[in-house]
Write a structure and sequence with these properties.
The protein is 27% helix and 17% strand. It is α/β, with parallel strands linked by helices.
Length: 209
């Protein structure tokens, strides 16, 4: 097969720019919109890079930092990095029925989050004596697409929620997921990234502020 000089240069250029550390054999990177800016998610290219010290601890006091089960509740799908990236990609291409949620408190989010995620602190969806039920209602209606009819929640048009927090030892997103289920949110519309930020950082994937 013969190539023009221009085509040959393009091929050489693409080969020289190829990443050494891909996300998967057929996925080099994913472009995501985060806070109105395009962010390219890829893995750290320095093969000697080590994990962020914030996620290097192996042993935190339990409770409250106990290992979470692989399955939180019947119908709630536990997903990994590749599945999360697919949801982010769908969202980026205009699927408004997907919300990727970082359930951590703002101090943790300030250290870096998954591009494309929005922050809804787990404290905003807690059901306890200090809960602002108006805030929960506002989140349901304004962000999750839930409709209220005569004080009854209508989840027919509810969005798919992809939730995560700090890792398999973190109870923030699991607490919110259990609360959502108690309030009637359909289990099949809730996805849980169990690995959270610890797994994300372990794979050297891009974070954003």
């Amino acid at each position: 097969m013969r190539f023009s000089l221009y085509t040959s240069l393009l091929l050489l250029s693409s080969q020289s720019m190829a990443l050494e550390v891909n996300i998967s054999p057929d996925m080099e990177s994913v472009n995501i919109n985060h806070n109105d800016k395009e962010v390219t998610i890829q893995r750290q290219q320095d093969t000697k890079n080590t994990i962020n010290p914030d996620y290097a601890k192996t042993s935190r006091p339990c409770p409250p930092f106990c290992i979470q089960p692989m399955t939180l509740a019947p119908g709630v799908e536990t997903i990994g990095e590749l599945e999360l990236l697919k949801y982010l990609d769908k969202k980026n291409w205009g699927d408004d029925n997907i919300v990727v949620i970082d359930s951590r408190t703002s101090d943790w989010v300030a250290k870096g989050t998954i591009p494309g995620a929005i922050n809804i602190p787990w404290t905003s969806l807690r059901l306890d004596k200090g809960t602002d039920t108006f805030e929960i209602k506002s989140i349901f209606v304004d962000q999750f697409g839930v409709q209220e009819q005569e004080s009854i929640w209508d989840f027919e048009k509810a969005k798919t929620l992809v939730m995560f927090c700090n890792g398999a030892w973190c109870g923030q997103s699991p607490t919110n997921i259990r609360t959502l289920l108690r309030l009637g949110y359909p289990a099949d519309k809730i996805k849980w990234y169990r690995g959270g930020m610890q797994a994300w950082e372990t794979f050297g994937l891009t974070t954003a502020q």
